Amino acid sequence: ITGMNVMKYIRQKSTVPIIIISAKDSDSDKTLGLGLGADDYITKPFSITEVMARIKANIRRNTEYAAVQLEQTKLVCGTLVMNLENHTVTKSGEIIELTAKEFDILRLLMENPRRVYTKAQIYSLIWNDAYMGDENAVNVHISRLRTKIEDDPRKPQVVITVWGIGYKLGEQK
Q: Could you tell me if 147 and 126 lie in one domain?
């Protein structure tokens, strides 16, 4: 396995800083490495003090980003609170048990409260698959989600139907 493939794999799982140290010093090699997810690229020969400074800078930058991301661990819509850190949803303090797909649909809507999503968009984003025109999967999950989170699922206030288009998050006070 190449270093570039290792880096692609790490990037799929983590945002840990990656610094490439390589004898390859062409612009195309640097561009490729940085484009695939490296945070820095150092060519040989190098000074150890420069490497240490770059490591400290990348750790500092990553730590500051992590602090900002921690602030984004809760999404709120009225009495509904989604905790992204521990993958839970509560309504008025009571835990709501959601399936993974229900959680993902609700998260999509809560992260983009003013956006309307078509069924095709929801299907593509949640199932990571091409939409083949079968609305049943989305309809069933939306219906089950409403049963769990709405005060009256027949008159939804959280997951709103935009007729002829799709779904959006309701305006909560």
A: yes
